[in-house]
Structure formats: structure tokens, C-alpha cells
Amino acid sequence: MVSLPKFSTITWALYLIPVYIFILDPLLREYFPSLLAPPSDIDDVFDESGAPGLGIDLTDDTFISPEDGVPFNCPSTEGYRVHLLSREPLVMYIENFISETEANHILDTSVNKYTPSIVYDGKIERVDPTKRLSDRALLDRDDTVRCLEDRARAFQGWRSDLYIERMWAQRYNASGHYRHHYDWAGSLARGGDRFSTFMVYLDADCEGGGTNFPRLRMPAGEGWCRFLECDQRGVDEKGSSKVEQMGVTFKPIKGNAVFWENLRGDGTGYSETWHAAFPVTKGTKVGLNVWSWYQPKRKHRLGR
Ligand SMILES: O=C(O)CCC(=O)C(=O)O
Ligand SMILES: [Fe+2]
Questions:
Q1: Contact present, 153 and 118 (Cβ < 8 Å)
Q2: What is the mean pLDDT of residues 53-67?
Q3: Which of 263, 271, 289, 295 could be disulfide-bonded to 192 (CB atoms 3.0-4.6 Å)?
Q4: What's the pLDDT tens digit per position in 218-273?
Q5: Would you call 113 exposed, middle or buried from its count of C-beta atoms within 10 A (0-12, 13-18, 19+)?
Q6: How distant, in Å, are the alpha carbons of 91, 138, 268, 277 from that of 111?
Q7: 198 lines ligand 1 (CB under 6 A)
Q8: Are 175 and 130 in contact (CB under 8 A)?
Q9: Predicted ipTM?
Q10: 67 or 141: whose pLDDT is higher?
Q11: 100-110 vs 143-155: helix axis angle to the nearest 10?
Q12: Tens digit of each residue's pLDDT (9 = 90 or more) over 189-226
């Protein structure tokens, strides 16, 4: 009979770590990507009721902005400026992504449509001010919004199977915030997931309210201090450096945007995209969420 060598529990654990890292984890990622997805505080409705396990209905224009052939005119924009913060995951900062006229137009047209923001835990939607305290407004697909949809798709190279979700403006008054969460749900194996996020600042007449990514590394040099909170590089109350803990915090600046990709090529979500809206301490911040939903077409089997 084969007898196993007598190792202490700690020795066994040390042997099992590489087995997990090099064998078990890659296998799970390959075959069960959704199993490894952390619980998501994804904040909107992923309505799978019509077609369980098949992703969302791509003609559902309460969730997606389908290409419906409606003509629209876009103003000639001055153009935006892109700064690369991270290649993996891809995180970019976009100066002047939306013009002042466009931002003001969205602020004006949404002003009477706000209702309390909800969180969704995979089962039910509810208002939970401890997690998310803000109001949100679904935007009509007028010319300005359609031009933004176009800009968001062009920015991503007109990637196929990518659909811009209906856009929401999100307004935070003093003490408004959104606790750390992922925008992705680990649901690609079930049909689709949020591939990318543009966080656009429509109004930033506020103090606080930065968008924080605790797992991203603060870039070197002072050049980024225009866009990032650099004074968080100070020491904490115990005298040790807080930089690692705080990661990166984007200042809300009207017209600018942060863009990041949520999913790897294999469809699994990046843990580095864990992010929050820090509390607004004074004034009002209005953000615009532009999410791109990735849902590859399903191959029909013969005979079905
Ligand atoms: O307002 C922000 O800075 C971030 C908002 C956000 O993460 C979201 O709405 O999913
Ligand atoms: Fe988010």
C-alpha cells in the first residue's frame, strides 16, 4: 500500500500552494471563469429573465442602445487628449472627452429625472445608502447622447459584439459616495458582461468625490498630479506611508473621463478594477456612466 510521507500541516500547505497556482487556478479560469469572479456590487439590472443563461436581450432598449438607424448630427469636436496610466489592465485618462456644451446639455435635460441609485446583489435591486448614496437619471437618446455612443465605440476601435448600454447620469450631493465595487459581474460564460467603463465627469463643482482605485499603482513623477490626488502620498496618522493602501484617486474634472477595461481576453474580470467614488464633502458632482456590454454571438448548433 502506498503511504504518504509524514509532513506537518504547514509543509503540506507549502506543497499545495504551487499546485493551486500552477494547476488548479489556470484550470478553473479556463473552464469556470464565473466561479472565480468575486461577489459583484454591480449596480444595474442584468435582466436575464427572458433568456436565462443567454445574456441579455440585445434588442432591449431599456438596457442597451441598439443601432436603430436613427440619423443624428455630431458637432465637430475639438478632440480629446489621451494619457495612458496602465497597460494591464488598460486604464486611460481622457482630457476633454466631452465638451462643455455637451456636458451642460446633459445636465439640463436630466435635471428633473433623478431617482435614488440602486445596488444589485445578483438577486434583488435595492436602495442602500451605506453602499451607494447618489441619484441617477436615464438619458434620452438625443443627438448629444448618440454622438457620445459613437465616440465611445470609435474609441474602442468599433469592436464587434460590443454594445453601449443606455447612459445614466449620476449625481452626488454632499456625503454622496459609492463604496468599492466592480462594474463587471463575471457573467461572460452566461452570455455577456461589462467589458469597459468610461467614467465621465459632467460637473465637478465639489470637494472630495474622487474616483479611487486602491489596487492601481500611483505613477511616478509630478506630471499626473493635474489629474490624480497626489497629496494622499503623505503619511498616515501612524506615520507610515499610505500610498500603497490608497492606490490611485482621479480628481473629478468637468469634461474629462477615465476609461478602463474590466475584462481580460479570456473573459475573466480584473481585480485591479475594484473602485469607488469617494464621498463628496462639499458641493455637487455629476458623473456619466458609459458602459460597454460585450456579448459574443452564440454559434447555433446544427439541427437547432
Ligand atoms: O462616480 C464615480 O467616481 C464612480 C462611479 C462608479 O463607479 C459607478 O457608478 O459604477
Ligand atoms: Fe463603478
A1: no
A2: 87
A3: 295
A4: 999 899 999 999 987 554 445 555 545 699 999 999 999 999 999 999 999 999 99
A5: middle
A6: 30, 11, 37, 21
A7: no
A8: no
A9: 0.99
A10: 141
A11: 130
A12: 999 999 999 999 999 999 999 999 999 999 998 999 99
The helix/strand/coil state of 86 is: strand
Ordered by start, the domain boundaries in the chain are 85-230+245-294
User: What is the C-alpha separation between 18 and 252, in angstroms, rounded?
Assistant: 42
Give the separation between CA 218 and CA 245, rounded to whole angstroms. 10
Pocket mutation for ligand 1, best pick of 170, 248, 290, 291 (most atoms within 8 Å of C-beta): 170
**85-230+245-294 is classed in which CATH architecture?**
Sandwich (2.60)
Nearest CA to ligand 1 atom 1: 277
3-state secondary structure of 204: strand
Report the relative pairing of strands 275-277 and 177-181 from DSSP bridges: antiparallel
**Distance between CA atoms of 79 and 95, rounded to whole angstroms?**
9
* CA neighbor of 102 nearest in space, from 65, 67, 75: 75
Q: Give dist(CA 173, CA 286) in Å, integer.
A: 9
For residues 55 and 49, what is the distance between their CA atoms, to the nearest angstrom? 9
- Cell output for 73: 448630427
Could you report the per-residue pLDDT of 2-50, keeping only the tens digit for each?
A: 455 566 665 655 566 556 555 655 455 444 444 444 445 454 444 333 3
Establish whether residue 134 lines the binding site of ligand 1, counting it when its CB lies within 6 angstroms of any ligand atom.
no
